[in-house]
Amino acid sequence: MENKLQAKDLINIGLFTALYFIIGCAVAIPIGFVPILLPILGALWTLITGIPFMIFSTKVKKFGMVTIMGILSGLLMALTGMGFWGIPMGIVFGFIGDLIMKSGNYRSVKKNILGYSVFSLWIIGTYIPMYFMVDAAYADFASSFGEEYATRVMQVMPMWSIALVILGCFICALLGGLIGKRILRKHFEKAGII
């Protein structure tokens, strides 16, 4: 098997990143307008995007594909106004997800699901400003949605909740991967993933 990424691999990354991001945004956009739901937004994102990622995992055969998807996802999030922290988080968690999936030769369903769950933690980058740059995040929310919205967001995002947000994203990603596996069983069999 050729180890270098080919044009076909890059096309797959681009197509599946777009699909992954569109499906994630279909969940995130309506929920994002309700401040009390922001703490669970990342978890719902990882739950629903498990299906497109698991389809993508049937195409991943080379190291770096998941890392690139993480970088692109963070970049898309930055371009939609959610800050740049998704990019470094996409690099880190995409790389770790790649390592996990590679350890199963990209053919182990369990390792692909675990790799997806770790990869999914890139979404925590969108929460970093709310926890670590509170004043700037408040000002940003206030200028975009008004002071009442900004105040409510900060009320439902106390510092201690970051652990619950991370845990929720990881657990929902595991569930999303399992749902994707169940729905896509025939795709896995055809791709020779066990």
Layout of strands and helices, then pairs:
Blueprint lengths: L6 H26 L5 H11 L1 H8 L7 H15 L6 H18 L5 H11 L8 H5 L1 H12 L1 H9 L6 H22 L1 H7 L3
Helix pairs in contact: 1-2, 1-3, 1-4, 2-10, 3-10, 4-5, 5-6, 6-10, 8-9
Tell me what you see in this structure.
The protein is mainly alpha-helical and 194 residues long. The chain has one domain (8-191): Arp2/3 complex 21 kDa subunit ARPC3. It has helices spanning 7-32, 38-48, 50-57, 65-79, 86-103, 109-119, 128-132, 134-145, 147-155, 162-183, 185-191. Helix 1 (7-32) packs across helix 4 and helix 8 crosses helix 9. The radius of gyration is 17 Å and the shape is elongated.
Please sum up the structure shown.
The protein is mainly α.
Describe this protein with a few key phrases.
194 residues, mainly alpha, Arp2/3 complex 21 kDa subunit ARPC3, 0% strand, elongated, CHP02185_IM, transmembrane, membrane
Number of discrete domains? 1
How is the biggest beta sheet arranged?
Answer: none
The secondary-structure class comes to mainly alpha
Report the CATH architecture.
Orthogonal Bundle
Strand content: under 5%
How many alpha or pi helices? Answer: 11
- The span between the termini is 19 Å
